Batch of 2 targets.
Target 1
Amino acid sequence: MNEALCLQYVKTTAGLLQLPLCDAQATRVALHLQRTAAMARLLDSAGLTAHDELVEIFCPAPFPAVDPTLDSAGPSR
Amino acid sequence: MSAVMNPYHDAAHMAEAVRQGEVSARELVTASLARIEATDASVNAFTCQTQARAFAEADAVDARRSALVKQGHGQAQLRDALGPLAGVPYAVKNLYDIAGEVTVAGSVINRSHPPAKADAFLVKQLKTAGAVLVGALNMDEYAYGFTTENTHYGPCHNPHDLTRLSGGSSGGSGAAVAAGQVPVSLGSDTNGSIRVPSSLCGVWGLKPTFGRLSRRGTYPFVHSIDHLGPIANSVAGLALAYDALQGPDALDPGCHALRVQPVAAMPAGVKGLRLGALNGYFDDHASAAAREVVALAASTLGTTASVHWPDAGLARAAAFIITASEGGSLHLDDLRTQLAAFEPLSVDRFVAGALQPADWYLRAQRFRRIYRDRIHALFADWDVLITAATPVSAPLIGTEWLDINGTQQPCRAAMGLLTQPISFAGCPVVTAPMWPTNTGGMPLGLQIIAAPWREDLAFAVARQLSDAGVAHVKLAAC
């Protein structure tokens, strides 16, 4: 997305969402969005397939059924 | 000032002194408030003090102790009855609900909200543990920042050098502990907001496993990444506070812990732990000082292992996109109607986040699932991994750009470069205060990272570094 296209996108979508941006702020927002677009392009390399579903309400791992910290005198390994 | 009233004594020492009758909870609160009075004009950590409540809570602790002593109860019973944090003063980031106070979350917009009807879940937990709330702390507006350069309430200053950043978004929480105003504080961490101020202010911080502590009664930022946790002036105090904060909460859909797993009473020692230092992305974004603290910690722990953390750059990108999108959506109504009332330093990011295409957000959330699997696989081979918490020590307030290994980075975003990939995986992290040699006396923290639900292992390493004297809090100059 080049600068002009990004600014056009910002102005159009801001209108859709009823956000009252002046020209100067729309330009600053477009700059932010261009940086984020570069990050979004990084994710294109993640190798997602059609079967990679959304994460649920994020849980980093199941809560342990047994407490491993109670297994030994020191920190359990 | 008696020895126990030294503002740099830790929570464990203070609570023990209260139980022993060496000092009263009221005296501790009085000392804390006096320290705030003496230092906060220059530090600007506090946005509100709860003096009346603090004295009432302290007097309740003292009265309870007197009654128990009269009844002939011993020290063990006193500990159970008074709580592990009896009389310990603490303060909370101003996005925690405090009954009767407005939860401003660093904004002016929220000033029009009604006062909170009840304390946040974690404030209740600390009250039950005997701790005494003295006030609410400065932060980046709605937690969207790493610097606490809050335009509405003024910047929070680093107690070790008042011209420098405290870090953020829990800047007040880090600075209040570093300034000796309170031995314990509470913060929140979405992308690094406990770890960055802990690093820049030279204090201990814990970002627990995502889902470990209830977030109920706090003002949200990014529902799918928000964590809460403590900051303290000792690793023992950090562990005591963490244990007191734990407890399942079925009313927070993001609270996955089903029972308490205490760490404070666990013995020190890292024998048998598989330890390593992160390389690649984490080296690339670390200054010489940041690499120095990692090298010192690795040497102290007796490891030379160098470990690759998968997809760190992608994880940062995904965390950035999700943060912007959820943050922008959360505040969309106010962005429509009160745009000019937002923090100038973050309002454009909120707007940009609200305008992001759905594809970016969905792709980031889908990536998070496979990223989690890769991090689980990593921890099949390792117990604890270390890396710096910030690329550099505290920059000057107002710094716009940083040079990190020859690359110009926007300062306010770059402070989270090393923390974002870790919190996106939900791993627990203890931040240890360390003091590299060429930073003009300024600290730079170390992240001690474990697999989800293994805070105990991160604390074991933290204790080792504390016992070895390489990680510790220093008296601030403020």
Target 2
Amino acid sequence: MIAFILRRLAVAIPTLLVLVIISFILMKLAPGNPFIGEKTVPQAVLDNIYARYGLDKPEWQQLLEYVYNVVFRFDFGPSFQYRDRTVNDIIAQGFPVTFTYGAWAFLVATLVGVALGVVAAVRQNSWLDYLSVGFTVGAQVIPNFVMAPILVLVFTLWLRWLPGGGWNNGNWTNVIMPVIALATSYLASIARITRSSMLEVLGSNYIRTARAKGLPNWQVIFGHALRPALLPVVSYLGPVFVGMVTGSVVIDLYFSTGGIGQAFVNSALNRDYSTILGITILLGALTIAANLVVDILYAWIDPKIQL
Amino acid sequence: MLADRRIDTLAGAKAAPVVVVATKGRSLWMDAGRRFMRNRAALISLIVLLAVVVFTIVGPLLARWSIEKIDWSVMGAVLTKGNPSIATGHYFGTDEVGRDLYSRVIQGTQISLLVGIVGSLIAVLVGTIYGAIAGYFGGRLDSVMMRLVDIIYSIPYMFILILLLIIFGRSFIMLFVGIGLVSWLGMSRVVRGQTMTLRNREFVEAAVATGSKPLAVIFRHIVPNLLGIVVIYATLLIPEMILLESFISFLGLGVQEPNTSLGALISEGARTMQYGTIWQLAFPLAFFVVILFTFFFVGDGLRDALDPKDR
């Protein structure tokens, strides 16, 4: 187990470094910099500014210092745009919001998706099955940026039940639409994967044996069939996580929830390079960590993998 | 001496079936075609998809407005005068500033399809060659090549893509570069896996034994046998690429005005629907959903047709 985790870490850490270096180089390649505006600033002032942000040193040294600060002090440096705020401040403000609706969406997509898939498989060819297959086929092609406007149209403009945006300190009426918009297409995919893998497992010999022993139906399903049927679902959780992190940009923009996606787009449009870099690295690290967790989970569930 | 006799018997064995083959054989592709035709959902999807493609070609002939011409008569009164109507020539209505939505939806559909197909083609070219080489040679080369894919795969590429588009400016070329950077990864994995199973087959052994160079074996013998799985995967990749482009366009980082894509149109429509101009969302959304749906079903149908035992 430990060896397995170490082996996976041996891939994860270089990945993260590659991500940092690529982002850093891209940032340096950008023409101009945020401090040269329309007004001509005396060279002496510019020099002072560059010294303050450490831009007067050679680039490789900047990169090394940046990596050192991020890794050992968890410090992403000052924001280039807002003189009185650091990138850490900006992240600390947006992250809890994103985390709240992101975690809910992940839970909803996984739990409801699996439940729907299992029900559809167990009651194959019933109206429940057809309903769930119909829903999953439809919902799968509706991405979050289409789901969000439709939800607002129905629940805000027509029914007037829910506010069309804002965060309001995480009031449930503000959270519910972002969660649904973010979760739906993944929920559908998970339900579809669960259904087909559950059907395959239910048709296997050892399930027939379990039934022949006279086990009650629920015990066959939850005790014997569910665990192996979940394997493909677990391996899909990595992409789900990545998709949700990416989707949070859309959610933040559309619902004005003020999460980390909004900070990313704002800083992107303002050329606030240090913030872009910080957010990219943070989300990259989270993604890599999530993939690691998924891999470990997979190895733990799959009886064929010996750790 | 012994070898000669073996060749003789081989030749004899080969000569015998030639007589039998007088009845018309069915190729893999003909079989697949039959199976595809029997799949009603896939067949209908293919027809609808072709209809959409024909519409994007023929449609502009019927348009009375160009994509960027502003109809001043609806300016400021889009809700009452800009609605879909045959009389004004705006079959799909106008957008918020009075441009003809019919022409814009057609152009958006063209661009979305183009992005999907180009992205998928890049994936086919790069992914097939990369995956086939890694899978065929195996060993250390394989592990280095696939580790690289793993690394690129676990980077949240959307953020890198956004970074690219902001830093180097928004342009078609940058968009295709960005999409091309990531689209081939999945394909290379699929192809590598398939190549590894093909590598040990007799016909590859035979090709090696007759002295073919490794690259010749890959391109003459392995790649043609990968075609089925590549076609399936490429078809399923097209809607993914369309989604990716729409996502970028939705953020306002895709194609530049006055050009447009379905994602950009959906984004505009979503912003203005609260004023009651629902058609600005409905038409691009309908085209978008239809295209994605049909591609998914066609891809599914191809998988069932070409790879029946996979299910």
